[in-house]
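Batch job 17 of 40 flagged for manual review because the log was empty.
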Amino acid sequence: MNTIYSIGELESFLIAFLVLFLGHLINKKVPVLQRFNIPEPIVGGLLVAIIITLLHFQNITLEFSLPLQSTLMLMFFSTVGLAASYTQLLKGGSKVFLFLAVASLYIIIQNGIGVSLATMLGLDPILGLIAGSITLSGGHGTGAAWSQTFYDLYGMNTLELAMAAATFGLVIGGIIGGPIAQRLITKHNLVSEYGIGTNHHEQFPELVTYNELEEDRITGKSIIETLFILLTCVVGAGYVEQAVSLLNISWLRIPDFVYALFLGVIFTNTTEVTKSYKVNSEAIDILGTVALSLFLAMALMNLKLWNIFDLALPLLIILAVQAVVLAIFSYFVTFKIMGSNYDAAIIAGGHCGFGLGATPTAVMNMGSLVSRYGPSPQAFMVVPIVGAFFIDIVNLIILQGYISFIG
């Protein structure tokens, strides 16, 4: 008989902090994790997920109540938007489209691998797409949506497989990104143009580093003002999503965190042009790092690793090959096309995150790297914008092409 324990909201929130502390402690005690820049939320969250999985096999189920998880994700992407002033956009705008081209090329390769291996292993080619960009570049949400589509069209129940594949990608994407980028940085002796350290804001006050060790000089007032702006973006994103749904504007139906990101872009650039208000970059830095860390900790607390054990061996083979190919592609192709410099190395680490898991995983990979090697504002602008918005559109188009071909 399965016993279910429901954890209250406050207690669940407290456990999310403990996940981060646990990840920090393990990284400190296990040098190899720190050396390869494995993010603390990934380390702590994965250990908690393993414990929960072991309890599950003892017929004990823990259910966390985490209503703030979505809000924290929206807050983080709002900080990405607020950090993207038009001067930064002009400086690195072309890189966004260059990286979009790289990521789009990889989605074609990713689905080709999935469909080819599925066919070779005697599976339905549709399952190759499930173990391709639907879940690996798309994440859990895209996987759930396409599973419903496949059920409606073909009567195939792929939801559990999609959730398992997305879970696999989330974990592996958070593990391989750091080592890939670190290898590139050390091999090519790359350095950040802003230098290494924790006091960048003294020389570059407008810089948003997402470095948890940054020595920031902020006040209670600046935190309150920035929190107000972030929550305005979060609430605004909800209203925009409702309006798009009510008006039935299909081409504007995108994930709500994209609305939050662009509301942040609109706010920071409007106030910059009109000189009506100056966004506090140090407060954005701190609140963005906190929101991302807690969101990822909560996401990993809810991982159902036993879904991976339920995967058929052929699907595990496909997913393992996908991870290896993305690692190779990021190392040799993404890095080279994006400029073979420090920013390109950080972007390559980020590509491993969202190419297998999700955009927040990509950003956490990059955050661990810049905490050690120095800021890369270009990477933090390029990867989230492509991973959070453009790639979903490209993914949809490519998937439709593959489905037409398979059909």
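Reviewer: the log was empty due to a logging misconfiguration, but the result itself is present. The mean pLDDT is 85. Unflagging and moving on to job 18.
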